Amino acid sequence: MTGEYVRQISSDGGILILVGVVHDHPASTYRVRQVVKELDPEVIALELPPISIPLFKQYASTDRCPPVFGGEMSAAIQAAATGTTVGIDGPTGGFFQRLGWNLLRERPSLQTVRNVVSDAVETTKHAVACRAAAAVGARTSIRLEVDSPVSHDIDWADAPDDQARHERKQVRRSHSFMNAFRTASRLQASRLEDVAREEEMTARLLRLREEGDTVAVVGIDHLDSIAERLNSMGEAASPDGVRDH
After folding, report:
1. What pairs with residue 104 in β-bridges?
2. Would you say residue 235 has pLDDT above 60?
3. What pairs with residue 234 in β-bridges?
4. 3-state SS of the chain?
5. Distance (Å, rounded) from C-alpha 176 to C-alpha 186?
6. This prediction's pTM
7. Is the pLDDT of residue 64 over 70?
């Protein structure tokens, strides 16, 4: 909670807090809950497809704290007093439009284009599966877990300092580990997708902040890029937007 993975962007419309997370990590889930409780925002913006939100709301509607399913995303919803929760990630029309323009501008290899299309199809199928699972949950008491949470060698029972150290270690390892097992075309496809996602998430956040104070939960790999994009549009980003804990 020192601000290492927290950014604040202020405007006339309200405060926007970006919270970076390692997905499904207990330290990240704790940080999200504390930031949401402290700010008590009007809007919770999550790195999720908009059509996935109903499923994560179902995950959050439990007496368990944090929720069993949904990681830091459902934990953010559970901690919020607000009724406004939105997904800001793709697949959306805006995301596909930005991705298309990026492909036209850079004209990557055919294999890279194939990788981009394949990833887009898989992402869309996953989002649709989330919506289908939400439909089942709305009609029954069954909660379907669409995908397994990321496994970490640490949990809530470990000391807070150990959790924090483990999270930092995961952040350092993520880039080098992923890059070591990707081809050049796969790396380029991932970069093009990430740029389109970050452009779309930034655009969504710029619109949402006019609705009042907002907490946005995004993967740590996207945190600095989104903060810099917002900053380049005339905003002042600060790593000390939330008090130390």
Report:
1. none
2. no
3. none
4. CCCCCEEEEEECCEEEEEEEECCCCHHHHHHHHHHHHHHCCCEEEECCCHHHHHHHHHHHCCCCCCCCCCHHHHHHHHHCCCCEEEECCCCCHHHHHHHHHHHHHHCCCHHHHHHHHHHHHHHHHHHHHHHHHHHHHHHCCCCCCCCCCCCCCCCCCCCHHHHHHHHHHHHHHHHHHHHHCCCHHHHHHHHHHHHHHHHHHHHHHHHHHHHCCEEEEEEHHHHHHHHHHHHHCCCCEECCCCCCC
5. 15
6. 0.88
7. yes
Q: Which residue has the tokens 């055919």?
A: 110
183: region left, alpha or beta (phi > 0 left; psi from -120 to 50 alpha): beta
pLDDT tens digit sequence for 65-115: 888 899 999 999 999 977 799 999 999 999 999 999 999 999 999 999 999
Buried b (16+ CB within 10 A) or exposed e, 184-193: ebbebbbebb
Please name which of 219, 228, 227 lies closest in space to residue 89, comparing C-alpha atoms. 219
- Burial (0-12, 13-18, 19+ Cβ within 10 Å), 95: buried
Dist. CA 16–CA 9, nearest whole Å = 5
- Structure tokens that stand for 160 in this block: 């807070």
